[in-house]
Sequence to fold (105 residues):
Amino acid sequence: MNNLIIRVLALGITLILFLTSCSSDPTLQQYFVDSQEKQGFITTTIPKSILGLDVSQMSASSQEAYNSINKVNLLYYPIDKQNTAAFEKENAQLNAILKSMILKL
Fold:
C-alpha cells in the first residue's frame, strides 16, 4: 500500500513539473526560429569580432559567455513602402516578447 502511495505521489509531482515547465508564452528563440522561414525575413551569420566589444571591460562571467560564442545569427526584416503594415505587425510582436522578457527579470 505504501509503495502505491509513493508511486502515485511521484507520478503527480512529475506531472505537475511537466505541465508547469511547458510555457505557452512566445520566446525570442521561438520567434527567431519561426520567422526564419517567413517571406520577407533575411537571415545571416556574422563573426563575433564584428561586434567590436571591449572584453577587458566585462566581468569574468561575461567574458566567459562572450568567449563561448563563435558567431552571431542575425534575423532582420527590411522595410519598404510595400511592407510597412507587415513590418509594424512583426515589430509589435517582437516588442511584446522583449517586454515579457524584461518583466521576468
